[in-house]
Every structure is written in C-alpha cells, then in structure tokens.
Amino acid sequence: MYQWLDERFDISRLQRKFLRKAFPVHHSFFLGEIALFAFVVLVLTGIFLTFNYEPSTRVIRAPDGRDLQAAYLSILFIDSLPFGAVLRSMHHWSAHIMVAAAFLHLLRILLSGAYKKPRELNWLIGLGLLGLSIVTAFTGYALPYDNYAVTATRIGYGIAQSIPWIGSAVASIMFGGEFPGSDRVIPRLYSIHVLWLPLLLIATIGLHLLIMIKQKHTQPRYAEKVAPGKVMGVPAMPQQAVMMGVLFLVYLAITAFVAGAFLAHPIEAFGPLSVKTPDVKPDWYFLWIYGLLKIIPSSWQFEIFGGKFGPEFWGGVVVPGMLGVVAALLPFVDTRKNKLRYVELPSQHPLRTSITVGLLMFFIMATLAGYKGDPGLDWLTTPLLWTLILVVPTVTTAVSYVLMKSLYSERSEGESAAPSPGPGY
Ligand code: HEM
Asked: Whose CA is nearest to atom 28 of ligand 1?
C-alpha cells in the first residue's frame, strides 16, 4: 500500500522533508499540543452534538407535557442518549482546556522570548488563535438556550452593542437580531459556531504549524551546551508522533473521567429561558472583564457625534483591546538580539518577567472583582477592589523586578566563577 501511494504521490519525499523535523524534548513544549488535542476533541464531540441539536427557538411540546424551545429540548434529548451527557460534557470541558492551554502556551512563548525575530508572524497568528478560541467558546454558550446561558451571553451582546457608532451593526452581524428574542439569533450563532469559526481555526492552526515547522522550534538551553549551533530533539516520526499519540490518549482519558464525574452545564438545573434573571457568572476567562464592568462607575460615559462611550465599552472593549495591541506590538518593540535560537530564562529579562507577573496579578484581581459582590457592589467594596486592581499588580511588578534583577546578577556571577555542569532549561 505504502509503495503504491509512494509511486503515485512521492510521499517518501514529503516524509524526508517534514517527518524528520526535530522536536525539542521539554514538557513546556507540549502546551501548544494540548491546545491542539482539545481542538480535535471539540471537533469530534461537536460532530456528535450536531446530529441531534436543533438550532431553533420554536416552541414545541416536550414528552412530559411542557412547552419548551426546540434548542433546549434537543439538549435534553442529547443528555438522555447513551454517553450523550458525557460527550456533551467533554465538549464543554475541552473548550475550557483549549483556552487555558493556549493561554499557558502564550505565557511559555512570552517568558522564553520565543516571539522574537523571526517568529513575529507566528506570535501574531497565535494571538489570533487565542482570540478565535475564546470567540468560538462564546458563540457556543447560548446554544442550549437555558436560562443561565442566555443571561450570561446577554453580557456579551451588551458589550458588542456598546461600541460607539457601529455597535448595533456589530451586534446584529454576530447575533442576527435582538438578543434574546429574535428567532434569528440561535441559527446565526450556530452557523458561526459550527462552521465559520472552526474552518477559520483549522486554517489558522495549519498556518501556525507550517510556519513553526519552517522556522523550527526555539531550542532548549541544554542544546547550547550539548551541541552548539545544531538543532536538537527527537524526529517527528516516529518518536514525537508516538509521544503525541500517548499524550492524546492520556488527554482523552482525563477529559472523559472529568466529564463523567463533573457533568458540565446541567441545563435541567438551570431551566429553560424565563423572565426570572438568575445570578450568573460568565466563564472564568471572561470573569476579569465582568469584574471591570462591575466596578467601572456608570457615570463614566459621554457622547460624541451620536456615538456613546460608556462603561461597557471601557471595560469590555477598550481594556482588552489595549492589552491585545500591546501584545501584538511586543516582538516589534523588543528587538534586542539575544541568541534567538535558544529559549531565554525568565530571570534573564527582569523587566519582561515582572511586567508579565504584574499583568497576571491584574487578571487575578479583576477576576476577584467579577466573582465578588452580586448583585451590586456597595460603597466600600468598589474602592477596595479598585485599590486591589491598581495597587497589587504595581507592587508585584516592582517586587518581582527587584527579585529577578538580583537573581540574574547572582546567577551570572556564579556562572562566571564556575560554569554550570548540567543542562539548564
Ligand atoms: C489554538 C491555539 C494554539 C495552538 C493549537 C497552537 C499550537 C502550537 C504548537 C503545537 C506548537 C509547537 C509546540 C510548542 O512550541 O508548544 C506551537 C508553537 C508556537 N506557538 Fe502556538 N498554538 C496556539 C496558540 C498560540 C498563541 C496564543 C501564541 C502566542 C501568542 C502562539 C505562538 C507560538 C509560537 C511563537 C510558536 C513557536 C515556538 C518556538 O519556536 O519555541 N501559539 N503552537
């Protein structure tokens, strides 16, 4: 069979070209792969869900006599199928894992300087991937049309509408109509969620990996000592492929266990859409934005030529947008030449590391604000949360900068006195 294919498509040439690529052996290099596994599981379990999900809000009579929306009822039906609830739960948990793994992978790239020349483009593509993963998860959230999911998605609808001048157009492109209410919304979110975003993700992940293969990985630090100037690692075929296969099976086992033990989003408990607004919290990766929305005072608004600039715009668009722009500019600002081939240690770049730690603290504090104090924040909690959001990140940035500086100078002194014998990173 192999020979038959080889004679027709010269696959051994492809094999020589791509499958001998060396993969560095280091656990931090598996984070991108975990994001990839999560995506594969999302697609596979998503295909199963599409067989039985009905993207419609028309009201139909359920077998138990209740009048329910078709989307909600179809999810109840999926949950009643053999392994249906577990597969839906795996889909849900994998969405969380994909976002978390992509974020941790970003941190690895950031702290090891792997975004620098020549990898600027792949850094930008990676940022796009993180954004796409989050938007894909968001568009899937309302699909069960239960009371909790609809209320949480309404926050996103409000943010889309808050963009001055073009907010209504953006909300209507994304949602297809008034949300909740219009029967166009679920079909629109469904088509974006199961077709357009997955296609975009597949194309973007493909490009990301092709660029990575072409440019080769950054090298772990031990490579500099063991074989300076050489690309070290195990070949893609068979070693790396076997490792990835095993890791994928481990991923499947863990998510199947977690999905079975902790059924995600139990829609029976939340109930169908009703006039009663439940006390909702968005998913963890939106909680920091939700926190900002809660503490920004409603008086922070003004109007220019009919365009409204309000709290939802500041917290939901401006702050995340500014962080995105800063991240996108990073490889073009940090152009210091520094042995581009090898990963850098966080302690070698005190400023970059301490700002990253400060930003993480900012996310944590804003998440705390999102978690705290529903339905409204009192006069004492709001200033306290503002103080935490502004002061804690600033202090942690300063403290970690001083710590990193001393760590690095001690290290370089140590290294000049006696070169370290073992592999580092
Ligand atoms: C869906 C999300 C993503 C997937 C599936 C993915 C996948 C991968 C994989 C499998 C690798 C090779 C293994 C590794 O170095 O960890 C890689 C490398 C890389 N990724 Fe991602 N990635 C994603 C998101 C991101 C993000 C958010 C960034 C940064 C903003 C990014 C930037 C990079 C860079 C610069 C490399 C080359 C690293 C090096 O040479 O050491 N990726 N990606």
From this structure: 126
Cα–Cα distance list, 287 to 95, 155, 291, 312, 365 (Å): 16, 11, 6, 14, 10
Looking at the CA of residue 98, tell me the nearest atom of ligand 1.
Answer: 1
Q: What's the rounded Cα separation, in Å, for the pair 17 and 47?
A: 33
Ligand 1 probe mutation, 105, 116, 232, most atoms within 8 A of CB? 105
Name the residue among 127, 169, 399 with its Cα closest to residue 307: 169
Other Cβ atoms closer than 10 A to 391:
12
Q: What is the pTM of this model?
A: 0.92
The pair phi, psi for residue 303, each rounded to 5°, is -130, 135
Query: Which residue puts its alpha carbon closest to atom 26 of ligand 1?
Result: 126
Contact present, 140 and 75 (Cβ < 8 Å): no
Residues 315 and 161: their CA atoms lie apart, in Å, by 13
Q: Dmax of the chain from CA atoms?
A: 81
Phi, psi angle pair for 178, to nearest 5°: -60, 135
Ligand 1 centroid – CA 307 distance (Å)? 38
> To test ligand 1's pocket by mutation, which of 18, 208, 232, 326 has the most ligand atoms within 8 angstroms of CB?
208
Q: Which fold has domain 18-273+311-340?
A: Cytochrome Bc1 Complex; Chain C (1.20.810)
Tens of each residue's pLDDT in the chain, 425 residues: 889 999 998 888 887 777 778 888 778 889 999 999 999 999 999 999 999 999 999 999 999 999 999 999 999 999 999 999 999 999 999 999 999 999 999 999 999 999 998 999 999 999 999 999 999 999 999 999 999 999 989 999 999 999 999 999 999 999 999 988 899 999 999 999 999 999 999 999 999 999 998 888 888 888 888 888 778 888 888 888 999 999 999 999 999 999 999 999 999 999 998 878 778 889 999 999 999 998 998 899 999 999 999 999 999 999 999 999 999 999 999 987 654 478 888 888 999 999 999 999 999 999 999 987 554 556 668 888 899 999 999 999 999 999 988 877 766 555 544 444 334 44
φ and ψ at residue 223, rounded to 5 degrees: -65, -30
- Pick the closest to residue 162 from 362, 315, 354 (CA basis): 315
Q: How many CA atoms lie within 13 A of 299 on its CB side?
A: 0
User: Which is the closest atom of ligand 1 to the Cα of 133?
Assistant: 1
